[in-house]
Amino acid sequence: MPWPAGRPKESEGIRFMMMKTTISLLSALLFLTIALPDAAAVKPEEFQAWIAEIRAQAVRQGISQGTADQALKGAKYLPEVMELYHNQPEFKLTLDEYLNRVVPENRVFLGKKKLHEHRTLLENIYTRHQVDPRFIVALWGIESDFGQVKGGYPVIDSLATLAYASSRKDFYRKELFNALRILDKRHITPDKMKGSWAGAMGQLQFMPSSFEAFAVDYNGDGRIDIWNDVGDAFVSAANYLARSGWVKDQTWGMEVALPKGFKRDAAAGSKPRKPLTEWKAAGVRGVGDKDLPDTPDTVSLLEPDPRVGRAFLVFANFNVLLKWNRSDFFAIAVGMLADRVGENDASGIKP
Fold first, then answer.
1. pTM of the shown model
2. What is the bridge-based pairing of β-strands 285-286 and 253-257?
3. What are phi and psi of 304, to 5 degrees?
């Protein structure tokens, strides 16, 4: 999902320290009680008093009294949101495992159908923002399974819960106020403002701050409906990428094979940018012993997971995808899905 600056990955929820065997069961239970307060630890009257203060702050920020009252009068603390916030998976998938989950063959197949189905719309958006349609479709597929999984949590309740009880209170408080501004502009009603447990919304899973910064009304009806109108959702995604530095008709990257004895950059973790010709001269080849393309682009070498040993040369657009989601795995998945979706595409819109 598009992440505003400072937004934590949902997959990077709070991880617990491994308990040494010498710690008693009583101490462990005490730790969990402190670290993970349940619904019983949240006093309803204190939460509602806090909501009243949020309502007053919203009005002071220029949000109408009517919107603040309507959106917050029934605000609820959602203990299941805090459970999800605290209990993210302890293990990390390998790149191969991640790609198998995120870019399965059925998603590739459906992505090709969606690219064809929305061809005219996507080409019109391309003329505006110069973002290749296959990348919009790939983001759509990964973020919401082409609009099928948009999230069913009330966004105001989720954000209020996280702003009240999470370790990122300031971040989620700002997102809550942004959500109230969206309601105040009548883009959607509170009962229909649904999203993920963390407050991401719509077909492309925008956080409220990303909606405020990048969302666009495609059909000119005066409302931006990223939940149900694919035109609004697609053009908002394209606007996000374009304003984040998307390079017209450039790809994201490619998987490569490194020659035996290849010398990596001495600075650990660095990703030096060099012209493709230099990588080619160093013996780097495309997978399947393919030649690297003859372009003047400057690219970086990325080895995202030493456990599987795969390597990629990535272009500037890869870094734009990282602005959407600060995960190398995510950006690779979007690129690979876009490549597969765009196979044999007759539009002519290709890098």
1. 0.86
2. antiparallel
3. -75, -20
Give yes or no for a contact between 58 and 178, defined as CB atoms under 8 angstroms apart: no
Task: Return phi, psi of residue 123, to 5°.
Answer: -70, -35
Question: In this model, does residue 335 exceed pLDDT 60?
Answer: yes
In three-state secondary structure terms, 303 is: coil
Cα separation, 64 vs 180, in Å, equals 9
pLDDT over 80 (residue 249): yes
pLDDT for 258 beyond 60: yes
Phi and psi at residue 6, in whole multiples of 5°?
90, 0
* Main-chain dihedrals φ then ψ at residue 16, nearest 5 degrees: -85, 145
Find all residues with CB under 8 Å of 227, minimum gap 6, and list them. Answer: 150, 188, 192, 194, 201, 202, 203, 233
φ, ψ for residue 323, nearest 5 deg: -70, -30
Indicate left, alpha or beta for 45 from its phi (over 0: left) and psi (-120 to 50: alpha): alpha
User: How far apart are the C-alpha atoms of 142 and 90, rounded to whole Å?
Assistant: 22
What whole-number distance in Å separates Cα of residue 17 and Cα of residue 21? 12
Cβ pair 123, 231 in contact under 8 A:
no
pLDDT band at 87 (very low <50, low <70, confident <90, very high): confident
pLDDT of residue 238: 98
Q: How many residues in the chain?
A: 351
Band (154; pLDDT cuts 50, 70, 90): very high
For residue 206, give the DSSP letter: B
Q: Where are the domains of the chain?
A: 253-341
117 and 343 Cβ atoms separated by less than 8 Å:
no
Q: Where are the beta strands (DSSP E) in the chain?
A: 153-154, 194-195, 253-257, 273-275, 285-286, 298-302, 311-314
